[in-house]
């Protein structure tokens, strides 16, 4: 509901509910997952009446490093909300990248699409390039490909290949369909590798290409259609 209106991400919306900032038809919402229809229900967030976006927007951002994927940050760190505010758009991140990771991040006010991007059952592939501290052996590559055990369960099989090596280090390409917190970094740690740099180069059919760091661009009509199709919309 809140994400569909372009006010906050799903996690941000949950925090607003916990803080008592959401009012549905005159009553404070206390239960996460409460449903509402903005076409017929009266919803206020932090005193503002919500309404459905008149037009959905879809953007691709090349997220810089050392930036959190949130609309605000209590620790006063740089955050994606700064970039969105400068754009003058009512959009929010669809998914996240961790603080040090750079690359492709989708921004939108289409809450249903954003929810599907972040939900693991839709198996949307994400492509990463990771620089690791040493050249992995065949056994390490096989473990990554077949799934490794993390503290939140075994990962799904991943596509992994060595892109190049230099100075006894390696750049790897990984293609995964999950979106666990710090997943690529934890996968590498599980097989004895340390990630020194990490960049996401594609989300489903949407490729980062040569988009400059810290800048965003509209998705083309064709890209939006391909993304919606990949998500079953």
What's the CATH class label of the largest domain?
Alpha Beta
Largest sheet: 9 strands, mixed
Structural class: alpha+beta
What is the general shape? elongated
Q: Could you tell me the mean pLDDT?
A: 90
Q: In angstroms, what is the radius of gyration? A: 19 Å
- Domain count: the total is 3
Number of strands: 15
Give the distance, in angstroms, between the N- and C-terminal Cα atoms. 18 Å
Number of helices: 6
Question: Which bin fits the share of residues in helices?
Answer: 10-25%
Q: How does CATH name the architecture of the largest domain? A: 2-Layer Sandwich
CATH superfamily of the largest domain, by name, is Pseudouridine synthase I, catalytic domain, N-terminal subdomain
Low-pLDDT sequence parts: none
Order of helices and strands: HEEEEEHEEHEHEEEEHEEEH
| Proportion of residues in extended strands | 25-35%
CATH-assigned fold name of the largest domain: Alpha-Beta Plaits
């Amino acid at each position: 509901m809140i994400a569909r209106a372009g006010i906050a991400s799903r996690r941000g919306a949950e925090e607003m509910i916990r803080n008592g900032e959401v009012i549905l038809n005159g009553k404070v919402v206390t239960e996460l997952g409460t449903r509402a229809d903005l076409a017929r229900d009266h919803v206020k967030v932090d005193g503002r009446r919500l309404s459905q976006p008149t037009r959905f927007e879809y953007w691709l951002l090349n997220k810089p490093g050392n930036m959190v994927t949130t609309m605000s940050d209590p620790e006063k760190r740089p955050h994606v909300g700064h970039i969105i505010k400068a754009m003058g758009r009512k959009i929010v991140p669809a998914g996240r990248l961790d603080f040090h990771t750079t690359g492709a991040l989708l921004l939108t006010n289409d809450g249903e699409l954003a929810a599907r991007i972040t939900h693991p059952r839709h198996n949307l592939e994400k492509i990463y390039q990771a620089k690791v501290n040493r050249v992995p052996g065949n056994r390490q590559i096989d473990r990554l490909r077949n799934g490794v055990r993390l503290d939140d369960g075994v990962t799904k099989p991943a596509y992994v290949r060595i892109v190049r090596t230099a100075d006894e280090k390696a750049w790897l390409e990984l293609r995964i369909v999950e979106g666990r917190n710090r997943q690529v970094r934890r996968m590498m740690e599980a097989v004895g590798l340390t990630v020194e740099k990490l960049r996401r180069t594609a989300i489903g059919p949407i490729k980062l290409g040569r988009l400059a760091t810290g800048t965003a661009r509209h998705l083309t009509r064709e890209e939006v259609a391909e993304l919606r199709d990949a998500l079953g919309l």
